[in-house]
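Quick start: what a row looks like.
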Amino acid sequence: MDALSRGPLVGAFHPLKIALSTAIIVLGFGAVYLSTLIFERQEMLAKVSRYNVAWSAGQGVNEFLRLRQRVSELAAGEGSKQEAQLRLDIVKNRLELFRSGEFQPFVLEADDRRRTVESLSHFLHRAEMLIEQVENPATATAILSEMVPLEGDLIGLAAEANNYGGQQVARDQQELLQLHWTFSALAWGLVLCTFVLIVLLERRNRLLIQTQQKLHALNATLVQTSEDLEKANSAAHAANDELITQNRLFDTALHNMSQGLCMFGEDRQLIVSNRRLATMYGLSPESLRPGSTLEDITRLTVHAGICSRDSAENIHSEQLSLIARKKRGTLLQELSDGRMISILHQPMNNEGWVATYDDITERHHAETQMVHMARHDALTDLPNRILLRDRMVSELARCQRHQRSAAVFCLDLDHFKNVNDTLGHSMGDRLLREVAARIAILVRREDTVARLGGDEFVILQADVTQPADVDQLAQRILEVLSEPYELEGHQVVIGVSVGVAVTSGVSDDPDTLLKHADLALYRAKEDGRGTYRFFQPEMDARLQRRRTIELDLRAADFDQEFDVVFQPIVNIHTLQVTTLEALLRWPGCRHGPVKTEEIIAIAEDTGLIVNLGEWVLERACRAAANLPGELNFAVNLSPTQFMRGDVVEMVSRVLAATGFPANRLELEVTETLLLEDSQRSSCALRDLRALGVRISLDDFGTGYSSLGYLRKYTVDKIKIDRSFVEQISTNQDHMAIVHAIVSLAHALGMKTTAEGIETEDQLEIVRATGCDEVQGYLFSPPKSLADVTDFLGNRRSKSAAA
C-alpha cells in the first residue's frame, strides 16, 4: 500500500517545484511556509504506512487461528504434523512483524499490547519444543490448552490495531482540511501553486479513500474471520466434548471387559491396562501403572504368589521371543490356584504390542476331559485302543533303541456273557471294573492295561528282560482273574483265556503285535479256554486259511457246494438202525477238504450258522421221503441258532414245508447251550418238545456237565462223547464214567447213545454198561442219501434171510 500511495505524488511534485519557484521569490515567506507545509505533507504520506498496523494484526490472528485448527485436527487423530509446523513458522514470522517497523510503536504504546506480544512469543517458544510430538493426542491437547487464553488477547490486539488506524486517518483528514483553508487564504498569490496543490491533494484524497475502503474491507474480513473463529471455537469445543465422551466410553468398555488387557509402547513400557488384568493376577490396579515394564509385572505376579517363579519366567521368556520376532502367538499359563490363562500376544505397527488374558479354566478342563475320554475307556477308565497304540509305538521304539523286549497280552473273559444274561448288564459292568482293578494290581507302573471293548483287555508289558517274566505274568493273570468275585451278594466265577505275543526285535509294529496276540488268544480258546498260549508263526497261516474259508462260506451256494450225509444209529440189542444223524459236508470248497467242526466254528462266529443250520434241517427232512417211515432223523443245532434266530419258528416252518412228522425228528444240542442258562434257551427247548420234537444232549461229559442242567432242562437222550469210548477197553476210568452216565440217564428216564464205536470190544463193553444205542464206523461211516438207502436195503435183506 505504501508504494501505491507515494509513487504518483512523487512523480507530480518535481515539475510543481519548478513552477512555484517564481512564486516563492515573490512570496518568499509564503513559499517557505508552503514548502514547509508540503514537506509536512510528505512526512504525513510516509505515515500512511502506519495504516498497515491493523492489517498486520489481522493477518497474525488469522495465522494463529489456522495453527489452532491444525492442532485441533491432530488432537482428534487427523491432520499432519507438517501442516502444523508450517502454520507455526508463519505465526513466528508474524511475531517478527509485531516487533519491527511501524507496528513496534503501536505495541509499545500500551502495556497490555506488549504483554500480548510477549505471551505470543512465550507460547511459540513452548510450541516449538512440543511440535515434534504434536501427533500424540495428549501433546496436541496440551498445546490447545495454552492457545485458548492467548486467542482472546490476539483478537483484542487486532481490534485495537484497527481502531488505531482509524484514528490516524481521522487526524490526517482534519489536518488536510486545515491546510485547505490555509492554502485558500494564499490562493490570490499562489493560484497556480494552490491549483497544483489542490490537484495533488485531490489525488491524495482519492488514494486515502481507496485506503479507507481497503481498511473497511479489511475490517469486514476481520469481522468475518472473527465469526469464523467463533464457529471454529464452537466446533473445537464440540469436538473436545465428543473426545471426552469417547474417552469415557472407552474407559468403561476397557474396565468391563471379561478379558484382561495391557498395551505396551515401542519403549516396552506399559501404556494402559484394565482392572480385569489386575484382578486376574491378584494385583491392585494401582500397581499396574503406566510406565511399568513387562519385567516389573512379572515380578509382581510372582510376589503375589499367583504363579510360580518358573511359570512366570517361562511365560516372560516366550513373550520376549514373540516381541523380538514381531509375531502373533497364544501362550498358556497355569496359575498356582489351578486356573488356566490363555495369553494372546498381538504386535502393533509401532513396535509395541497388545496382550489379552483370558481365563479358560473351565474350557481347558472340559477339553482335558474330552481328550481323556477320547483316549480312555468310559467304564473302567483304562486306556482305550487309541492310547494303547500310542504307548505301544513309544515302547517299541524304546525297545529297538535299547535292545530290549516287550510283550502284549490279549485277555478274553470266559463265560462273561453268562453274567450279563443271568445277573444283568449293570452287574456285568461292575464285574468288568473288578477285573480291571485286579489286572492293575498285577502289572508294574511302566506297564499299560487297556480295555478294547466288551470283555477284551490288553496288557503291554514293557522292558521285558527275562522270558520267564512273561510266563509268570500270564500265570498270575489266570490265577487272579479266575478267583471268585463277590458282586452284591452274588458269587461269580469266570475264567480267562490269554494270548501272548513277544517282540521279535525286527520290524515290530503295534498292529502286527496285537494281531499276533489275538491269534494266540484264539488258539487258547480252541485249546479249551482257561489257559494262555504264545504266538507261533503257524498261527498266522491258520488265520489266513480261516479267513479264506470264511469268505468262501459267505459266498457259497448251499445247494451247489454243500451236501448232507447220514450216519446210522443202531439199537445195541437188536443192531437195527433206529436213527440217521444228518452231518454236513462241503465237497465244493475251492481250497480242499474242510472238517465239519471247522465249518461249524466259522459259521457260528460269522452268524452264517442260522441259515446253514436251517438248510441242513430242511435237506434232512426232505431226504426222509426216500427212506422207510419208521426211521428217525437227528440234526445238530448250534447254540448260536438259539441266540440269533427263532429256532422254534424255523423248525415249525421246515416241518410244515417238508411234511416231516415232528415225532421222528431228534434235535441234538450241546452242553454249551445249557451252560448259557438263559430264559430264551429254556423256553425254546420247552416249545420244541411241545411240538413233539425230541431233544438229545450231544457230546455229554466233555464240557461243564452238571446234574443241575439235566434236572432243569428235560432231554430225551444223552449222547456219550467218543473220547470216553476210544479208550474204554484199556482205561477203567473211562469205563466207569460211561457206566455212571448210563446209570444216571436211566435213573432220569433218558436213553443213551455211545458215539465212536469202531471195534467189537468197544461194542461189548458198552453193551455191558446198559447203553441203549451205539454209533460209529463199526456199523457204517457217514454216507450219501443214495448209499445209505442201499445200506438200509442190504441190512433189511440180511435180516429177512436170517
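That is the whole record. Residues 1-13 have pLDDT under 50 and may be disordered. The chain has four domains: 2-232, 260-366, 376-535, 553-801.
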